[in-house]
Amino acid sequence: MGGGILVKKLFAVLGDPIGHSMSPVMHNDLFSFYNIDADYLPFHVREEDLHDAVKGLKAIGVGGFNVTVPHKSKIIPFLDGVDELAANIGAVNTVVNENGHLIGYNTDGPGFIKGLNGHLPKIAGQKVLIIGAGGAAKAIYLTLAKEEPLVVDIANRTVENAWGLIKDCPYSVSSNACSFEDASDSVGNYDLVIQTTLIGMSPKIDEQPIPLKNLRKQTVVCDIIYNPLETKFLKEAHQQGAVIQNGLDMFIYQGALAFEKWTGIFPDVQRMRDNVLKQLGGRTC
Ligand code: ATR
After folding, report:
1. Ligand 1 centroid to residue 37 C-alpha, Å
2. Active-site residue flag, 167
3. Pick from 76, 84, 87, 88: which is nearest to 142 by CA?
4. Contacts of 274 by beta carbon, 8 Å cutoff, 6+ apart
């Protein structure tokens, strides 16, 4: 390229649907706050167009992009490389253009753990219960497993799927699978309980996966849902004296870690939180 042409960097998020993504406003605000000449755009990409979309982004020299539902796993064969954690999870949510090579990462699990820091500074030695055994649970489970917890058990409607996650885990961790019924009996044994299913998400806000009457006070209870900000599950946990955390931090920190991978800057997460809350309708939490 000759002299003097300033090329604005492009960042993006690919998903189907993509209309409600809060990532563009969140990242565009950060680019302008840190004086980085870049735009972050949402692209509605159907599965059959995913390969072409990735080739197109690579051809135009995209700086990086996020990948959301339903493409997090399907994108992997179209990338030039995938880091170890993302490969083990089998899902990529962040892609970085590293000298012309598109490399996939997963910042969902690490984002969850980093967002938890205020409530639980270290995972090592903790007893953890994960509720659910889908994609989000897998990202959190494998990331936690690397941090030397004492135990990470998984409760799921289909117990077999929980065993599947445990059997496929490449990291050494002590784990058992159980039913929701067993989990509600034993929930008092854990230091950290993480709800990863969509049960309780708007509009079905009256549902919760397990009752929490056996919960111990001071247990840290997280729900990865942020709409509503306080699910029925978290409300009950709060009433039982637990320390609660909604899904906003996981969303914000996965974005913060992606932004750091693209720019080298770990951004102001309070600014991100205020911005996301504004998009959610001005609620506070
Ligand atoms: P995600 O990628 O968001 O984690 P997913 O991969 O579809 O979504 O996983 C959905 C999880 O929610 C699974 O643990 C699923 O349980 P099953 O393995 O038994 O299917 C759980 N789930 C979804 N709907 C549920 C419901 N109505 N009751 C109980 N569990 C439910």
Report:
1. 40
2. no
3. 88
4. none
The first and second tokens of residue 4, run together, are: 């003097």
Q: What is the mean pLDDT of the chain?
A: 96
CA distance 63 to 258: 11
C-alpha count within 13 angstroms, C-beta hemisphere, residue 116? 24
Cβ contact 63:9 at 8 Å: yes
Ligand 1 atom with the smallest distance to the CA of 133 is: 14
Q: Given 72, 114, 138, 146, which residue is catalytic?
A: 72
Beta bridge partners of 41: 12
Give residue 2's pLDDT: 43
- pTM for this one? 0.95
Contact 54, 75 (CB under 8 A): yes
At 165 the three-state DSSP class reads: helix
Compute, in angstroms, the gap from residue 89 CA to the centroid of ligand 1. Answer: 17
Successive 10-residue mean pLDDT values, the chain, 285 residues: 71 96 97 98 98 98 98 98 98 98 98 94 96 98 97 98 98 98 98 98 97 97 97 98 97 98 98 95 58
**Residue 227 near residue 169, CB atoms below 8 Å:** no
Encode pLDDT of 167-214 as tens digits: 999 999 999 999 999 999 999 999 999 999 999 999 999 999 999 999
pLDDT at res. 155: 98
**Distant-in-sequence, close-in-space partners of 143: CB < 8 Å, separation ≥ 6:** 85, 89, 109, 110, 112, 113
d(CA 124, CA 142): 14
CA of 81 to the centre of ligand 1 (A): 29
